[in-house]
Design brief:
Length: 499
């Protein structure tokens, strides 16, 4: 029997992180391409074009696919022929910290969810799990999981009488209320069975399966097909902006459970399924930490990794929706905003601001204290985003929209104080829609998951305030031909009502 070492696990994690942060898995790319070919003339086709172009930029320039480079989930699978020491994950946090710093990835983990929400500064701790399986050998699964998709997930304890139809109803309800925030088209992982504490892990593990590969049990595989058909029949489509493909796949894991229980977990996976499985050579000796080699880092390792799906860059298809986007100059003129309709494709050029959760709390405090918007925000557009560090000769390696509804607590007051537009992803509240009508302002939707593409459209950026918040600081940026759709218009139109 061979012993797995903590050094082997750490090295596998260290090598995988920069690669999967920047290179879209081949099965996901192929599924996106198939979806685009099937879309035809829809906004969804434009969204898929953005995502495929984004994947090309990220891989070519070695920048993150998405600015939310996630929390790190590490799952070790060990077979009967290997021994696992108790400290097998002891070096994983060091591996994560090194990889995130060297690859210039965004660090998004806070010290404590309740009592200390200061950023840890190195994206640790990683979240680890171990499974003992019948398959010989050992392998490490690494998944970078963004906040938007995890926040769109759900765990519920159904009664046995709910049965198959109850599961379907719960999945469809979760999709209807949360899918727009998770950067669709999605891979949906579902766990059915086990116990309260196990079912969520089953759902997350389902995301590791190659896109579209059916469950081994033909009855479960049939259920997966049924769920996928129902999800895509919703018409929500890519970006939840309308189309045929809201989900690329639905993967279901099942397990035994108590006679009184029907545990269900739904784990949304975004269009950038950043995952890898590394087979460990349990007979090999691996040193940790890695010896420093001049000119080589985790980001260089990503650049050299033989993971490219194809040699040629993807060529975006054209459609009526992308033929003639409306060109808008920032700062925006409300007379021009009054002409826009929900669903219109636009491109923004000029100066806007970048701010998200923690910064909005501070901005509201300053607005209340001063009675007016500070920092030149009167008449401005706010982009809800938190970028990764500079890379590829640009101000940011990746910067894309975060879930706009988290800023709904602040948006009405900011619109009424003088902000004329916001940019994010996902559905807004009725209060935000009312504020847009009242003030003649709009909400724009940017393609979630297209962070490398959008970073390419940012020409400059500078911190204006709240520097201590790191990625959540208030920034002034200059953009050129920044692609968006009108989400809420000045007359009450809502793009999410158009499917």
């Amino acid at each position: 029997m061979t012993t797995i070492t903590k050094e082997q696990v750490a090295r596998a994690v260290y090598d995988a992180i920069p690669r999967i942060a920047c290179v879209l898995p081949c099965d996901v790319r192929a599924a996106l391409e198939d979806a685009q070919a099937a879309e035809g003339d829809t906004r969804g086709a434009v969204v898929l074009g953005h995502l495929l172009e984004n994947a090309d930029i990220a891989e070519r320039d070695h920048v993150p696919i998405c600015q939310d480079t996630g929390t790190v989930w590490v799952c070790l699978e060990a077979g009967p022929d290997v021994s696992v020491p108790g400290d097998v994950f002891a070096c994983v946090d060091d591996a994560v910290a090194r990889a995130y710093t060297e690859a210039r990835l965004r660090k998004s983990v806070v010290r404590d969810a309740l009592v200390d929400r200061a950023n840890t500064g190195d994206n640790t701790p990683a979240f680890t799990d171990i499974h003992f399986v019948d398959t010989p050998g050992a392998r490490v699964h690494v998944l970078l999981k963004g906040g938007g998709s995890d926040n769109a997930s759900r765990v519920t304890m159904l009664t046995p009488g709910a049965g198959r139809e109850g599961i379907i109803a719960e999945v469809m309800d979760c999709v209807a209320h949360k899918a727009a925030n998770a950067c669709p088209p999605l891979v949906i992982g579902i766990g059915v069975g086990g116990t309260f504490d196990k079912v969520a892990g089953m759902a997350k593990s389902a995301l590791l399966r190659e896109v579209g590969t059916p469950a081994a049990d033909h009855r479960v595989a049939e259920f997966e097909r049924e769920l996928l058909d129902k999800v895509n029949a919703s018409g929500m489509g890519p970006g939840a902006l309308g189309g045929k493909t809201l989900a690329l796949a639905v993967h279901v894991n099942t397990a035994p459970c108590h006679i009184a229980a029907l545990p269900l977990a739904i784990n949304m996976g975004c269009s950038a399924m950043r995952r890898a499985t590394v087979e460990l050579d349990v007979a090999a000796s691996v040193a940790w930490p890695p010896a420093e080699e001049p000119g080589e880092s985790a980001s260089d390792a990503a650049a050299c990794a033989e993971t490219s799906c194809e040699e040629d860059a993807h060529e975006m298809g054209s459609s009526a929706h992308e033929a003639a986007p409306i060109k808008l100059t920032l700062p925006l003129d409300k007379t021009e905003l009054a002409k826009l309709k929900a669903g219109d494709a636009c491109v923004l050029t000029g100066e806007m601001y970048m701010l998200r959760d923690a910064g909005h709390i501070r901005l509201l405090e300053e607005l209340e204290a001063q009675g007016a918007l500070p920092y030149g925000l009167d008449g401005a557009t706010i982009f809800y985003a938190g970028p990764t560090p500079a890379a590829a000769g640009r101000p940011f390696g990746a910067v894309g929209p975060t879930t706009a509804s988290r800023m709904d607590f602040a948006a009405p007051a900011l619109y009424r104080a003088g902000v004329v537009a916001t940019v994010g992803k996902g559905v807004r509240s009725a209060d935000v829609a009312e504020a847009c009508q009242e003030t003649g302002s709009v909400y724009f939707v940017a393609t979630g998951g297209a962070a490398a593409l959008l970073a390419q459209r940012v020409e400059s950026g500078e911190v204006v305030a709240y520097d201590d918040l790191g990625t959540e600081a208030l920034r002034r940026i200059t953009v050129s031909d920044f692609p968006v759709f009108v989400g809420l218009d000045t007359r009450g139109g809502n793009v999410y009502d158009l499917q």
